Structure formats: C-alpha cells, structure tokens
Amino acid sequence: MTVKIKEFPGTSLSEKDFDEGKILFNYDELKGEFAWDTGIAIGSYLAALKEGLILGAACYTCHKIVTPPRTVCEWCFDPMDEYIPLLDTGVVNTFSLCYVTWDVQRIEQPEIPAVIMLDGASSLDSGPIMGGIMHKLGEVKPEKVHIGMRVKAVWKPAEEREGSVTDILYFKPIEN
Amino acid sequence: MSMRKVAVVGAGMTKFVRRAQETPKELSWQASRMALQSCELTMDDIEAVCLGTAPDAFDGVHMNGEYLSDGAGAWRKPYMRSYVGGGTGVFVPIQGWYHVASGLFDVVLVLAEEKMSSFYPHAQAAFLTIFDHTTERALKPNLLWIFALEMNRYMTTYGISKEDIARVSVLHKHNAAKHPCALLGDADITVEDVLNSETLAWPVQRLDVSPVSDGAVAIILAAEHIAKRITDKPVWIEGVGWSLDTAYWTNRDLVYPRYVEYAARQAYEMAGITEPRKQIHIAEPYDPFDYKALHHLEGLQLAERGKAVELYISGAAALDGDMPVCPSGGLLGVGNPIAAAGLMKIAELFWQLRGEAGDRQVAGAPRRGVAQAWGDLMQVGTVVIMGR
C-alpha cells in the first residue's frame, strides 16, 4: 500500500508560518484547581515526614516492605495496614543528571533525580521488589555520583517541615 | 475458547509532522478515509469503530473520543475509545480484534490519532500530571527523568556503552529516510551525531529521543469470510497480549520490562509460537528512546537480557538482516504522535508482510512479525503478532 500510494495527507507548519501571521489559531488558558485528600496511607506517610521519618508499609502475608505506604498489597491483595519507619539511608539504584526542568527550561547545573533503595525495606538482593523512593541528590559533584553509592536524607529543620515529600531536601553521600 | 480469525485488510496514515495545520478531526478523517480506500470499502461497510488517543491534556479537550467522533466515522455506530498511555496504539487494534474475533462485528475501523502540538509552549509539561500528585509531583519531575533513570539502570547493569545504544537511533532514522510519512528520517546520521547532540538528562541526549509529533493512522479489520472477499492478501492477527506491572515504579528494578514479557508470552501462546527468535521475522518494538527498543526486544524474548544491542552490532537488525528491527523507522525516525505511533507499527507489519513496503521492504519474504508498545508511567506492555 505504501508503494501504491504516492501522496500522503498532513500539512506541516513551521515557526515561520506563525511568525509571519499566516496561521490563525485560538489561544486559551485552562485553569484547574484541586485539593487532593491524602487518604489513610499517604496521610500517615506525610504526617511521619513532618516528624522526620520515612514510613513503609509491610505485608506479612507475602513478606514485603515498600514505600510509599498503601492500604492494599497489590502482589497478594491482602491489607497492608501496618506502617513502620524505614531508615533514612539507602543505596542509589539509578540516577540521572538532568539539564532541563519539567517545562523544558535549560539549566546550567543539573538536577540529580535518583531512585534510592531505602535501608529497612525490601531489597533487590532478596527478590524483584524493593522499597525505592524517587528523590534528588545534593552536596555531591555530578561526576562523582554512581549507582551503588550510599546516601542519607538531608531534612528541613523540624519547624519548617509541612508534611510533604519536600521535607526531605535531598539525599547526600555518606562519607566513608 | 472459540474465536474467529481476524485479518487486517487495509491501512492508511497521514504524514507525521511537528505541527500539523489540520485539526485532530481532520487528521482522523484523512487516515480513516485512506484506510477505507485502500481496501475499496466505504463507511457503510464499517460496523463499529475503535479509537485510540492519549491524554486529553494534549488537546485541552475533555472527552476527546466524542470530539473526534465525526473524523472517526463513529456516528450511529458502536464506538469506543481505549487508552493505556503510550501502549494505546497497539492496544486499540487488540480491542478491534476482540470486537471481530468474538463474532460481534464482521468489519471494524481502528483509528489512532494524536495532536501534541496544541499544548503550549511544549507538550512535555502536560506530562507532569502523570506523576503521583502528592508523593512525586512536589519534586517537579520531568518525563525525561524516568527514561534517564531507566536507561542508566539498564546500561550500567549490563555494561552497555552509549556508543552502542546510539546505533539504535542511527538505524531507525536511516530506515525512516525511506518512509514517505517520516518526520526525522536521516540517511546520513552517524553515531557521532547522536553522541554530540545536546545532553537533556544524562544519559539521554537529544538524538536518543523521538520527536513530539502530530498524526493519525487507521486500519480495517475483518472476519475471515469477509477478509477473503476483500483481498487476496489478508494479514492475520495471530496473537495478542497485554499486561500491567506495578504503578509504584520505584518498587521494582527498571532493568527489565516484565510486563512486556508477560504480554509477549500471552501473544506467543495464542499464535503457537514456541521459539520467537526463529518464528518472528520482523520486530517493531516500541522505541520512543533508543535504549527502549533494546529493553523491549529483551522483554519480547527476541534477545537475551542485556544482549539486544548485539542485533544492531551484528547487522541482524538491518533491513537485510536476520531480524529486521523497526523497518518503518520507528518512533525515533517516523515520529511519535503517541497513539498513532503504535498503530503505525501495525500498519508497517501489514505493508511488510504483503510485500508493499517499497524501499523499506525487508529481505526474505517475511512470514510473521511482532509489534509492541509500552506506556502509562512505564508499566504497560501491549503486543500483537501478525502473519500471512
């Protein structure tokens, strides 16, 4: 069929077409505001972050400890209603050096998002599930970051914490 | 389980472009019309319509299915939109397949459309809302993060170099140079060009990534007794599979896509495939980023874990190789209008298996191919096996 058809529809526009006013378009802004209830599990998680603790949820049926907390274990569908503090240390499972923001603005100094496998949670050393958290790394030169690096959370001062994942400022390397 | 045989009998697509003058409705109609004309049917012959399109946020139109309905030819017909993120383009033909396989309908139009350019100033920002609003969005994540995190985990675990991963982007863009609808086909691009492109989120560089695009693709599905009247070259849907892994993506190892394996095993079992590396002759794995093609080839059981890149190094992945990968040019080359990009892979297998792919035609009169897409926040796998 591609050999049978010579002309395909679809008209490509260029920035120039817009700059020269050749194209009419309708510009609008959609505004939406939301207040999301945290629920039982994440509510507990956020309250604990305010106290300087990272909570995990434990499933004693299939033996997993993961974070963030949730009310159901999706692996066995039993309740996950026991929330226990994990350590605020762990291992860098993976990371990136990111030179663009969420809305594609360029930045000179990269953000360092990472997945950190937290101590006290399920570990990839013993199975396919891990208690990993997405956060950022700080107090480290980008070229020094590596997978397997030990890190520890750096918290906001207690009086500034508000019950948010940003109560952890970032994770920094643990000095050997 | 009693199921009827289902064939693809027609296909059509628009060019994939950075910014289309046409509206989403207009793109939809153009692709649908071309698919109908390709098999000499009219809208009167179509009994039901399946639509795939990705997040409403791109268009700023709530209930995008209804918005697109006239371009999709859906009025006064059973009509349903499906959406599984980036996996949509290979899920929507599965939806069409069970419409026909079940005996409910004989002829179904399957359409996938995406117009990403409407989101202002860049579609990337629309992706912020795919992250969990309470536990993740506060960190201002970028969609590139998850790809960069996954790519780093994958390449570091297996010791694969960025030079070798760049071969994927180069081959796909070379193939796309032979596709009449491609946005980023480039016959001259080299590994050095990829490695010298702007670093967005290390290890991801500009030319490791597929482009934001507008476009639409449509196919026609028919039950066996109708398909044989319509064409002497039906291409059968031999197997389908889909699967979801945990949405808590930081709770699993990103090194390997289990959800693709589960979806592939479902599809292979249905198609009676026991040795995919021998029985599959063309692979169209989902390739929004170059490493993703490798990741998915491994999930599809077409390479050992960590070894998919050897298909590119050895030349097996080339158009004249033993296992051509993305002969279309893939998302990296043809473009990535999300849902339409997945269905483009189905259309490519249709053309390849009929021997109608022109300059892109793979060698050796292929008998069977696999198309796969991936989506949601990185946990959906959708797989279709097609054969003649």
Number of discrete helical segments of chain A: 2
Instruction: Determine the fraction of residues in helical runs of chain A and give it as a percent range.
Output: under 10%
Helix content of chain B: 25-40%
CATH architectural designation of chain B: 3-Layer(aba) Sandwich
Instruction: Kindly identify the CATH topology of chain B.
Output: Peroxisomal Thiolase, Chain A, domain 1
Write down the secondary-structure element order of chain B: EHEHHEHEHHHEEEHEHHEHHHHEE
Structural class of chain B: alpha/beta
Reconstruct the topology from this structure.
The complex is a heterodimer of chains A (176) and B (388).
Chain A: H1 15-19, H2 39-50, E1 54-59, E2 64-66, E3 82-86, E4 89-95, E5 97-100, E6 106-111, E7 113-118, E8 132-136, E9 150-155, E10 168-173
Antiparallel strand pairs in A: 1-2, 1-3, 4-7, 4-9, 5-6, 7-8, 9-10
Chain B: E1 6-13, H1 24-38, E2 48-52, H2 56-59, H3 64-67, E3 79-82, H4 88-101, E4 107-115, H5 143-158, H6 162-176, H7 191-195, E5 199-202, E6 204-205, E7 214-223, H8 224-230, E8 235-244, H9 258-271, H10 276-279, E9 282-284, H11 290-299, H12 309-314, H13 330-333, H14 338-353, E10 368-375, E11 380-387
Parallel strand pairs in B: 2-3, 2-4, 9-10
Antiparallel strand pairs in B: 1-7, 1-8, 4-7, 5-6, 8-11, 10-11
Explained architecture:
The complex is a heterodimer of chains A (176) and B (388). Chain A has helices at 15-19, 39-50; strands at 54-59, 64-66, 82-86, 89-95, 97-100, 106-111, 113-118, 132-136, 150-155, 168-173. Chain A is mainly β. The radius of gyration of chain A is 23 Å and the shape is extended. Chain B has 388 residues and is α/β, with parallel strands linked by helices. Chain B is built from 14 helices and eleven strands. In chain B, the strands form two sheets. A nine-stranded mixed sheet of chain B has the order 3-2-4-7-1-8-11-10-9. Chain B has a two-stranded antiparallel ribbon with strand order 5-6. Chain B is globular. Classes of the chains: A mainly beta (176), B alpha/beta (388). At the A-B interface, helix 2, strand 4, strand 5, strand 7 and strand 8 of A face strand 1, helix 1, helix 5 and strand 5 of B.
